[in-house]
Design a protein that fits this description.
about 260 residues; alpha/beta; Rossmann fold; 10 helices
């Protein structure tokens, strides 16, 4: 790694939703290691406090605001606090999300509302609030966590696929709408990643009769993806190394999407 790429975020501040655990935690640490001040919005208090300690150990500064990002009043309160305590920010990683594994015909309206609220409404609320503040600060970079399920269909994941298609389109729209105001926006689209989310998804699909542990994972993406491999893609997209990359869906899936 070059000296330049080791410190790409010195003097920068990044806001990360879902930064307490999993890919969000790993990405928080990746940003911190390269000099960023990291602001985490998450529902999980104890996990976030652990992540803050790790950020400190990495030599940087972290902040945590306990926030359910699917709730507009909580999002507004958190960003008001960021403005008061931290000041302007340069990067937004909109990552918080979850999954429901279920046949479409068994999915309730409550399931629909829950997944759309956590995965889609949250991205709308957070980006709606952050973009004008980033523009006023001279621009910046947004990365949205989409999925391989943004553009491909998966059995038992109808609500999830719908929600991830929506946030990929949000990323593309932001890229187009805010480009002249100094904002780049890209999506990261992982396959299965070794986190609580990814491991639960594999277990639930296998319980329902699929065979991810017993061969599908090897046949599609070769092996499970490590959170660090997603974090590397996110920090690339967020950094000036990607200065002319805008509106892109970066698949982190070892060729699965291309193979089909
Ligand atoms: P994870 O479950 O380990 O972490 C998710 C984080 O989001 C947690 O810290 C959780 O507390 C937080 N969160 C959940 N709901 C929230 C809310 N309403 N408000 C604030 N924070 C909330 O999972 P992960 O795999 O690290 O990340 C999940 C994200 O990654 C989702 O957007 C998911 O669609 C995406 N993704 C994951 C995989 C995978 O295989 N793990 C693959 C593709 C995409």
């Amino acid at each position: 790694m070059s000296e330049r790429s080791k410190n790409r975020f010195a003097g920068k501040t990044v806001v990360i939703t879902g930064g307490a655990a999993g890919i969000g935690r790993t990405t928080s640490l990746a940003f911190a290691t390269e000099g960023a001040r990291v602001v985490i919005l998450d529902i999980q208090g104890p996990a976030a406090q652990e992540t803050l300690s790790m950020i400190k150990e990495a030599g940087s500064v972290g902040h945590f605001y306990q926030t359910d990002v699917s709730k507009s009043d909580q999002v507004e309160r958190a960003f008001d606090a960021i403005r008061a305590d931290v000041g302007p920010y340069d990067i937004l990683f909109n990552h918080a999300g979850t999954i429901i594994v279920k046949p479409l015909h068994d999915s309730s309206e409550e399931d629909y509302d829950r997944l759309m609220d956590i995965n889609v409404r949250s991205a709308f609320l957070v980006c709606r609030r952050a973009l004008p503040e980033m523009v006023a600060n001279g621009g910046g970079s947004v990365v949205i966590t989409a999925s391989i399920a943004s553009e491909l269909g998966y059995a038992l994941e109808a609500l999830y696929c719908m929600s991830k298609g929506a946030v990929l389109q949000l990323a593309r729209t932001i890229a187009v709408e805010y480009r002249e105001q100094g904002i780049r926006c890209n999506a990261v689209c992982p396959g299965f990643v070794k986190t609580a989310h990814g491991l639960r998804e594999i277990a639930e699909l296998d319980d329902a009769g699929q065979t991810w542990e017993d061969g599908e994972l090897a046949a599609t993406q070769g092996r499970i993806c490590e959170p660090e491999e997603v974090a590397a893609a996110v920090t690339f997209l967020a950094s000036d190394d990607a200065s002319f990359v805008n509106g892109h869906a970066l698949y982190v899936d070892n060729g699965w999407y291309t193979k089909g």
